[in-house]
Write a structure and sequence with these properties.
By secondary structure, the chain is of the alpha+beta class. The chain is built from 16 helices and 21 strands. It folds into three domains: 139 residues, Periplasmic binding protein-like II (D-Maltodextrin-Binding Protein, domain 2, 3-Layer(aba) Sandwich); 122 residues, Dipeptide-binding Protein, domain 1 (Alpha-Beta Complex), CATH 3.90.76; 211 residues, Dipeptide-binding Protein, Domain 3 (Dipeptide-binding Protein, domain 3, Roll), CATH 3.10.105.10. The strands form five sheets. A seven-stranded mixed β-sheet has the order 8-9-10-1-11-19-12, sandwiched between helices. The protein has a six-stranded mixed β-sheet with strand order 14-18-13-17-15-16. The two termini are 38 Å apart. The N terminus is likely disordered.
């Protein structure tokens, strides 16, 4: 919000000037940041998932309607007791190094996710007791107890398969030259500059791969990404600003794709992580309810996002089959908010350290929330912090209120438990409620959607009343591309799938 016109113009000029001749590859994609490690086991970033869509096929994928569809796994069957998942694998697949993909290779990849030091897939597959080779093209995942979200986990990085030969040879350096079984193979990476992949001629679905080479270019500033797309220096960009939608639509040479995110944007409250939690917002659920009632989510959506995003109050969006209609998005109620503050014994204004990421839209959200909450007696002191630093400060408990976003998973479990369970990886507020934990375990133990939804109803009621998070909205994944690009299908996980895409 504070960038001067002159510095923005300079950044635009430098970015346009800096794109070198090699960028004239058949497909050039502008991404919002430089991905972390290109190793499916250790990766954490959203942009890495975008690159993996070209490099590393998974056992299963999802389609635009969130159906789970075959990829390297052709079919699946869950045992009657829910403690075994048998997967029949696709025959005739080879890795980029020519090694065959079979049951032994699939077992190797899953075992690597489970045991490798620094693997972020370990918690996602924690209930897998062992992986068994049934026959050359069949594996069985034996579970410690029933775990209904398992199949959904295998549609993301936990289901990505790597070449055992390459992984063994490179050890902890695998990310420097990943070898998978996707439509494209790795060529080169220059940190903060580019990632280049080229078509893999032995890909199992090669007839649907029409572009010879893809270059991913990390450009942090969304305005600069759009400027490069408009100038023809890029063919496709992700995370267009909602305020730039009109600019894209008014340009006859550009096209816009939209999909409501399965993820969420929320504010996190430090309730028990060190001394910073010792304040009325952290210690009193009534004060948190008052804060929640001070926010007008629809107005926030209109002011910051031109009404293009979806206001929300749960970890799944209102279109999702697991959304609890019994607990609709709350309307702003200042009178009730002030009454709750009075009930909690609050007389003066409540100062709150509000840590936010250094991106224009997030800062804009923070300023709107700051103004709204002020009317209920909160004095939010915005502290702008780089993304990586904010994550570390969050883990260390050096915050009172912290904006956070989650890119989303198709199963509600993947959107909730890692933030809500006692001691969970993303539970930076150190919230802990054994009843909430027990409900999560119940939901994991049944595969009946109706039964699971009833359990999530109880969970939603409990967490919304006493939890440590204010869910505000669900973004639209806004992807813009040149009119020359055809065949792109937006999916609600925001990942740019490149199979089937053509450039005229």
């Amino acid at each position: 919000m504070h960038t001067s016109f002159r510095s923005t113009a300079l950044a635009l000029a430098l970015a346009l000037f800096a794109l070198p001749a090699w960028a004239q590859s058949p497909l050039r994609i502008g991404i919002g940041d430089d991905p972390d490690a290109l190793d499916p086991s250790t990766s954490r970033t959203y942009t890495a998932r975008i690159v993996f869509a070209s490099l590393c096929d998974k056992l299963f994928d999802i389609d635009a309607k969130l159906n789970i569809v075959p990829q390297l796994g052709l079919s699946h069957e869950t045992s009657a007791d829910g403690k075994a998942l048998t997967i029949r694998l696709r025959p005739g697949v080879v890795f980029h190094d020519g090694e065959p993909f079979d049951a032994k290779a699939a077992k190797y990849s899953l075992d690597r996710h489970l045991t490798m030091k620094g693997s972020f897939r370990k918690p996602e597959l924690a209930l897998v007791d062992n992986v068994e080779v049934v026959d050359p093209m069949t594996i069985r995942l034996n579970l410690k107890k029933p775990f209904s979200p398992l199949l959904a986990q295998l549609t993301d990085r936990a289901g990505m398969m790597v070449s055992p030969k390459a992984a063994e040879a490179s050890g902890d350096k695998f990310a420097l030259k990943p070898v998978c079984a996707g439509p494209y193979k790795f060529v080169e990476r220059v940190q903060q500059d580019r990632i280049v992949v080229e078509k893999f001629d032995r890909y199992w679905n090669k007839d649907q791969v029409f572009i010879d080479k893809i270059t991913y270019l990390p450009i942090v500033d969304a305005t600069v990404r759009l400027a490069n797309l408009r100038s023809g220096s890029l063919d496709m960009i992700e995370r267009v600003l909602a305020t730039d939608i009109k600019t894209v639509r008014d340009n006859p040479k550009l096209r816009l794709s939209k999909a409501v995110s399965i993820g969420w944007f929320a504010l996190l409250v430090n309730v028990a992580n060190g001394p910073a939690s010792d304040n009325p917002l952290g210690k009193d659920p009534r004060v948190r309810q008052a804060f929640d009632l001070s926010i007008d989510r629809e107005t926030l959506n209109q002011v910051v996002f031109n009404g293009e995003f979806v206001p929300g109050n749960q970890w799944v969006n209102p279109q999702h089959p697991y959304y609890q209609q019994k607990f609709p998005v709350p309307r702003r109620d200042l009178a009730k908010a002030k009454a709750l503050m009075k009930e909690a014994g609050i007389t003066g204004r409540v100062p709150i350290d509000f840590m936010v990421s250094n991106t224009p839209e997030v800062r804009a959200v923070a300023e709107v929330v700051q103004a709204m909450a002020a009317e209920a007696g909160f004095d939010l002191k915005i502290r702008v912090t780089e993304v990586a630093t904010a994550l570390k400060e969050g883990e260390d408990g050096k915050f009172q209120l912290y904006q956070n976003t989650w890119s989303g998973r198709i199963d509600p479990d993947g959107n909730s438990i890692i933030y809500q369970a006692c001691g969970a990886p993303q539970n930076m507020g150190h919230y802990c409620d054994k009843e909430v934990d027990a409900l999560h375990e119940q939901a994991r133990a049944t595969s009946d959607p109706a039964e699971r939804k009833k359990i999530y109803e109880k969970l939603t009621e409990k967490f919304l009343a006493n939890g440590w998070m204010f869910y505000l909205y669900h973004p639209q994944y806004l992807i813009a591309h040149t009119e020359r690009l055809e065949g792109f299908v937006p999916v609600p996980d925001g990942i740019m799938r490149v199979v089937g895409v053509k450039l005229k």
